[in-house]
């Protein structure tokens, strides 16, 4: 937040280069070649399912005297939020560490601080994740605190009221950011009335929450037979399994499980939306269409296509719009995949004068990926980038635990983590072209633009009839 | 407005919860090997074979403080130009080679330094060192890339400042209010006029004056031995000649003697916010470690006094965030600020929030910190310190920062002991000395509609 960086890593992916020059670039003659690659280690996971159905995965690490826990509750996230309570999973997750049957919020915060760690929860489309970490000497005490927070949250009335009051203000804060408004409109355009399309809270949904509602949702959504506990760090598999058994072994399911979520749409009629923001000095451009579920067959090809097009600094979109044209600080594009569907999204914030010109480049780049085979150099660069990124991510134990838990939430097998890089290396240019035709066809994309209508409306005309809701 | 982060990183200590204020810490030293090349380049290597990857940081001892007075924002613009190609490696090569090596790179500009960082599988190490040495030698001083990055930087300012509610006032504008000297109080992003006036002569001069090996530190952490690291540094960097670096101006200034207040109107925001900043102890002062403990005690997360007192207890603020200038408590050389930033509720005022903070500060001044609390706060501070060193990029960069600012990267292994040694009376002393109203600068940032409302009411009353 408070640094002047060369780049922001935008849209949950990394961020450039003239596409035409990508193949033809001359390398300096005395640039040393890359050295010998070392083998990529696949994580060794010890797995056990407790009698109540809770799955426990342990990855002992030798590095740091620290332990990380990720407890993933499948189906407990925004997918389970009823239409009357959009975004409520966020409040539910946020309130988990604000009081339990034994401790108030202050006691929880101070206990975590004393262990050199933290405990808290977050919501995503497919689940709620309760996470904790501590210095490894405190592994037993942190397991106990994690279990308390996950199993016995009290949702005290005062804390709920305060969280609601603050959430209403935070919604005002967020709504002043053009990206937040664009995200909401684009979600609706992509997913329609599927729960994935309404993950943002509204004033009404914040006000509708009560302690009783939260307690009943917690009981429905937090079930050992739909949960995974990942433990990693400086402890043995044996010790970790014993701790899991001691603190989660007697956890019981209550009532029947929530129904599984229906599949999200795979097609949507493209919409063109202009959200007015008078005085805006940039147009916030976002485009998107439905994508595919994380476990779909051509997921790996789609991920590589996303990286090539708009998933790193050296991607086509960023190179074109930033490094060649100077239209933006960062432009990106790519797929996001969840358990029951996904989205293709792209976007950049550009000065008003180049709104139309920037949209034109997006259209060109999206189309080109489906029309021309990607050359060997560009394929190799992007494959190596993905492999390297995987290796770099495994430096940090918390990241490994989170990735494993997230893969599980979205329906990918644990082996996926180790198989991903080899699978990426198998993808052919023809497969890239095929997924690009299917998902990046410009005519299938909805457009959402947030900006000053007087400054940009004229430039939008070439891209459809933009409606202002 | 950071959400609570997943605790990110770590590296090596085991604390037994002791009942007194000195947590028993299993020492974890970061290995630090250093060597100075004949041309003045300081090379640091921190070996760790646990992952077949490396982190790399090249830091130049120049930042916003030393940019030319008629060229605000130049140090940052120049940082962008370091990625725009050289005579040997034209524009695009740098990023493409590092991406193709499986790596990530970035750079950032701060008041006292500019850092250039890469992290990648170790197979790309030599390639990255060649690229860093190449751009330290010279750049392709080219009008097209200058124009391109002037445009990009202007979009960066639009997206982060002009088109954003709050516009970074808590880290840009606050320095303008708190500091007296130009070096410390100008906007490091710069004015569009100054950015547009920047020319190739400026770029050449800046590279010549500040980007020589003698004004730089090269730091490598990860799957590399000291012998390998030094050999490669020698191979790629020793041919670059040292260049005279201008003596820095005297940018030091003392604590403030009267409170500074500013009310700003924000056209985009809908919720008011306040930033309160106090000038920090000098780097290396005996007050620095106690201040680190004090800052954590007051503003370090959900167990902090400000959070418990103002977000929870009095329910005045939505959140509480704290900053140490643009870096951290150990990473500044010239004057810096401890800034607390909070969004506050429509029913309250900045004054009420400040009074609540003063109340918490006064408690510390009067009572000090009890042993149990001091132990907890130190434990968290030590864990955070080691966390920041977990990944190789963070480790290499922190070592380079400490070398640049303290003249000795081995400070990395002294900081934990400094934290451990802090006593209640030290915390009392720094609270009394620095967290005074006289040393405080405050910006109250209000939605334009809120500011217009009282004015409108007043004019209606007159009619």
UniProtKB/TrEMBL annotation, chain A:
SUPFAM superfamilies: LuxS/MPP-like metallohydrolase. The keyword Signal applies. It comes from Inhella inkyongensis. Pfam families: Peptidase_M16, Peptidase_M16_C. Residues 1-21 form the signal peptide. One of its GO terms (molecular function) is metal ion binding. The keyword Phosphoprotein does not apply. It comes from the Bacteria. InterPro entries: Metalloenz_LuxS/M16, MPP/UQCRC_Complex, Pept_M16_N, Peptidase_M16_C. This is Putative Zn-dependent peptidase. Residues 76-199 form the Peptidase M16 N-terminal domain.
Automatic annotation (TrEMBL), chain B:
GO terms for molecular function: metal ion binding. Pfam families: Peptidase_M16, Peptidase_M16_C. Keywords: Signal. Residues 1-21 form the signal peptide. Residues 198-381 form the Peptidase M16 C-terminal domain. The keyword Transmembrane helix does not apply. Residues 43-164 form the Peptidase M16 N-terminal domain. The keyword Electron transport does not apply. Belongs to the peptidase M16 family. This is Putative Zn-dependent peptidase. It comes from Inhella inkyongensis. The lineage of its organism: Bacteria, Pseudomonadati, Pseudomonadota, Betaproteobacteria, Burkholderiales.
């Amino acid at each position: 937040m408070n640094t002047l960086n060369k780049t922001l890593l935008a849209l949950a992916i990394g961020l450039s280069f003239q596409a035409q020059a990508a193949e033809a670039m001359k390398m300096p003659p005395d640039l040393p070649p890359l050295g010998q690659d070392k083998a990529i280690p696949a994580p060794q996971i010890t797995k056990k399912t407790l009698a109540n159905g809770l799955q426990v995965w342990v990855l002992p690490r030798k590095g740091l005297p620290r332990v990380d826990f990720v407890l993933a509750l499948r189906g407990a996230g925004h997918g389970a939020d009823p239409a009357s309570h959009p975004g409520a999973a966020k409040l539910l997750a946020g309130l988990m560490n604000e009081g339990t049957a034994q401790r108030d919020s202050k006691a929880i915060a101070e206990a975590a601080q004393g262990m050199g760690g933290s405990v808290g929860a977050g919501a995503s489309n497919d689940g709620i994740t309760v996470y904790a970490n501590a210095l490894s000497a405190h592994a037993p005490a942190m397991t106990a605190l994690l279990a308390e927070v996950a199993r016995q949250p009290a949702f005290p009335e005062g804390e709920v009221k305060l969280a609601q009051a603050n959430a209403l203000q935070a919604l005002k804060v967020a709504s002043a950011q053009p990206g937040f408004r664009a995200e909401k409109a684009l979600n609706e355009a992509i997913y329609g009335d599927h729960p994935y399309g309404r993950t943002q809270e509204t004033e009404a949904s914040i006000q509708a929450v009560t302690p009783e509602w939260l307690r009943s949702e917690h009981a429905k959504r937090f079930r050992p037979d739909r949960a995974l506990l990942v433990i990693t760090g400086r402890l043995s598999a044996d010790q970790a399994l014993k701790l899991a058994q001691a603190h989660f072994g007697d956890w019981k399911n209550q009532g029947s499980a929530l129904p599984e979520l229906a599949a999200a749409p795979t097609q949507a009629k493209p919409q063109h939306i202009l959200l007015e923001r008078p005085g805006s000095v940039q147009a916030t451009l976002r485009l998107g269409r439905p994508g595919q579920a994380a476990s779909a067959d051509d997921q790996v090809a789609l991920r590589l296509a996303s990286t090539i097009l708009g998933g790193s600094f050296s991607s086509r979109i960023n190179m074109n719009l930033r490094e060649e044209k100077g239209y933006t600080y960062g432009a990106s594009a790519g797929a996001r995949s969840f358990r029951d569907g996904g989205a293709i999204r792209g976007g950049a914030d550009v000065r008003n004068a180049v709104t139309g010109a920037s949209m034109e480049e997006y259209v060109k780049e999206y189309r080109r990926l489906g029309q021309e085979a990607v050359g060997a150099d560009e394929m190799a660069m992007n494959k190596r980038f993905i492999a390297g990124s995987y290796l770099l991510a495994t430096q940090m134990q918390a990241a490994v635990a989170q990735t494993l838990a997230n893969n599980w939430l979205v329906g990918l097998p644990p082996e996926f983590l180790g198989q991903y890089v080899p699978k990426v290396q198998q993808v052919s240019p023809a497969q890239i072209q095929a997924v690009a035709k299917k998902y990046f066809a410009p005519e299938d994309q909805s457009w959402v633009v947030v900006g000053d209508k007087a400054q940009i409306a004229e430039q939008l005309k070439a891209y459809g009839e933009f409606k202002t809701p | 407005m950071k959400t609570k982060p997943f605790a990110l990183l770590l590296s090596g200590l085991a604390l037994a919860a002791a009942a007194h204020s000195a947590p028993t810490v299993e020492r974890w030293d970061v290995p630090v090997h250093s060597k100075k090349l004949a041309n003045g380049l300081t090379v640091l290597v921190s070996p760790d074979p646990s992952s077949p990857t490396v982190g790399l940081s090249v830091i130049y001892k120049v930042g916003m403080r030393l940019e030319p007075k008629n060229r605000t924002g130049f140090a940052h613009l120049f940082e962008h130009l370091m990625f725009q190609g050289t005579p040997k490696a034209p524009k695009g090569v740098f990023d493409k080679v590092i991406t193709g090596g499986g790596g990530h790179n970035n750079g950032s500009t701060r008041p006292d330094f500019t850092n250039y960082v890469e992290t990648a599988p170790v197979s790309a190490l030599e390639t990255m060192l060649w690229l860093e040495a190449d751009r330290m030698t010279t750049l392709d001083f080219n009008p097209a890339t200058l124009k391109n990055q002037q445009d990009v930087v202007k979009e960066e300012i639009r997206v982060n400042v002009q088109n954003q509610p709050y516009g970074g006032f808590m880290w840009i504008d606050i320095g303008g209010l708190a500091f007296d000297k130009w070096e410390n109080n100008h906007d490091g992003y710069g004015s569009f006029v100054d950015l547009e006036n920047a020319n190739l002569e400026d770029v050449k001069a800046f590279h010549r004056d500040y980007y020589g090996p003698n004004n730089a530190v090269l730091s490598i952490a990860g799957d590399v031995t000291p012998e390998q690291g030094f050999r490669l540094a020698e191979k790629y960097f020793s041919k670059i000649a040292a260049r005279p670096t201008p003596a820095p101006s005297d940018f030091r200034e003392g604590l403030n003697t009267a409170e500074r207040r500013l009310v700003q109107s924000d056209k985009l925001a809908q919720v008011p916010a306040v930033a309160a900043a106090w000038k920090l102890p000098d780097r290396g002062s005996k007050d620095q470690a106690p201040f680190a403990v004090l800052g954590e005690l007051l503003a370090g997360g959900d167990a902090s006094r400000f959070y418990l007192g103002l977000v929870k207890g009095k329910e005045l603020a939505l959140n509480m965030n704290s900053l140490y200038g643009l870096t951290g408590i150990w990473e500044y050389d010239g004057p810096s600020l401890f800034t607390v930033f909070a969004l506050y509720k429509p029913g309250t005022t900045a004054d009420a929030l400040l009074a609540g903070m003063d109340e918490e500060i006064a408690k510390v001044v009067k009572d000090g910190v009890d042993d149990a609390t001091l132990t907890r706060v130190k434990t968290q501070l030590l864990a955070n310190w080691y966390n920041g060193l977990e990944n190789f990029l963070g480790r290499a960069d922190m070592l380079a920062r400490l070398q640049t600012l303290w003249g000795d990267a081995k400070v990395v292994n002294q900081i934990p002991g400094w934290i451990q040694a802090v006593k209640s009376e030290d915390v009392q002393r720094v609270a009394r000395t620095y967290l005074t109203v006289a040393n405080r600068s405050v910006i109250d940032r209000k939605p334009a509609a809120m500011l217009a409302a009282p004015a409108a009411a007043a004019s209606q009353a007159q009619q």
